[in-house]
Automatic annotation (TrEMBL):
TM segment ranges: 21-43, 55-74, 95-121, 133-151
Database matches in InterPro entries: DctQ, TRAP_DctQ
One GO CC term on file: plasma membrane
Keywords carried by this UniProt record: Cell inner membrane, Cell membrane, Membrane, Transmembrane, Transmembrane helix, Transport
Organism from which the protein derives: Candidatus Competibacter denitrificans Run_A_D11
UniProt membrane topology term: Multi-pass membrane protein
Classification via Pfam families: DctQ (PF04290)
Family, as annotated: Belongs to the TRAP transporter small permease family.
Major localization listed first in the record, in broad terms: membrane
Protein name: TRAP transporter small permease protein
Subcellular location per the Swiss-Prot or TrEMBL entry: Cell inner membrane
Length: 177
């Protein structure tokens, strides 16, 4: 169990670091948005690349912060019911939910989206808009992000099983996010 807990801790560190780094894209997105608006309204000059960069950055934040959000208990659940359950019941719900829903869906999306990335990469898929960006790099982010979310799901399962077996303290309820 010690090895598995060290593995879970390494996954947690990785996803927290990626999540924190990705939050800087929100600032970049805001600055690019301000630049695009200034150029459009101040100088009557627009850029599809700037608009697409904003969309891409928002998508990257959403994708790559999902694992970190899972780690800190920020995903949506019915807290009014969940909070009233005993900690052991909450652990079982989290374990079964991860095994039956989270991991299968994440792995399916990661596997399936890899083919979409490969097609986009091989064809050099880019924006149909003049001056737009390449799209295949963003399509690579989808399987990578869902793989990271799968890893975080595994980390959460390990930590919850460790709590059930007495190798770790029962977690506090992290509701109200």
């Amino acid at each position: 169990m010690k090895f598995l807990l060290r593995l879970a801790a390494a996954i947690d560190v990785l996803n927290a670091a990626i999540g924190r780094w990705m939050t800087w894209l929100i600032l970049c997105c805001t600055l690019i948005s301000a630049l695009a608006a200034t150029l459009r309204y101040g100088f009557d000059w627009g850029s599809n690349a700037l608009l697409e960069a904003q969309w891409f950055m928002f998508g990257l934040v959403f994708l790559f912060c999902a694992a970190w959000t899972l780690q800190v208990g920020g995903h949506v659940r019915i807290d009014i019911l969940y909070a009233r359950l005993r900690p052991v019941v909450r652990l079982w719900i989290d374990i079964l939910g991860s095994l039956l829903f989270l991991l299968p869906v994440c792995l399916l999306i990661a596997f399936d989206s890899w083919n979409f990335f490969l097609i986009a990469y091989r064809t050099g898929e880019g924006s149909p808009n003049p001056g737009g960006l390449l799209w295949w790099p963003l399509k690579l982010a989808i399987p990578v992000a869902f793989s990271l979310l799968s890893l975080q799901g595994i980390s959460e399962i390990i930590k919850n099983v460790a709590a059930l077996t007495g190798h770790r303290a029962l977690p506090e309820f992290r509701g109200g996010h």
